[in-house]
Structure formats: structure tokens, C-alpha cells
């Protein structure tokens, strides 16, 4: 369960980072 949560966080983090970089 923790692994799934961690994986989801990593994925969301990557998307968020891409969105921020795209915005800038």
C-alpha cells in the first residue's frame, strides 16, 4: 500500500514539475 502511495506521489510530482517548467 505504501509503495503504491509513494509511486503515485512520484508520478504527480513529475507532472507538477513539468507543468511548472512549462508555465515558466
Structure description:
The chain has 24 residues and is mainly alpha-helical.
Question: Keyphrases for this structure?
Answer:
92% helix; mainly alpha; single chain; 24 residues; 1 helix; rod-shaped
Question: Would you spell out the secondary-structure blueprint of this structure?
Answer:
Layout lengths: L1 H22 L1
Low-pLDDT runs: none
Structural class: mainly alpha
- Give the overall silhouette: rod-shaped
Q: How would you sum up the major sheet? A: none
Q: What does the oligomeric state look like here?
A: single chain
Separation, N- and C-terminal Cα atoms: 35 Å
Arithmetic mean pLDDT: 84
Gyration radius, in Å: 11 Å
Number of helices: 1
Residue share in helices?
over 70%
Which sequence of SSEs, written as H and E, runs from N to C?
H
Strand content: under 5%
Could you give a quick summary of the protein structure above?
With about 25 residues, the chain is mainly α. The chain has one helix at about 1-24.
Amino acid at each position: 500500500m505504501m509503495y503504491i502511495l509513494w509511486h503515485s506521489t512520484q508520478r504527480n510530482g513529475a507532472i507538477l514539475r513539468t507543468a511548472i517548467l512549462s508555465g515558466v
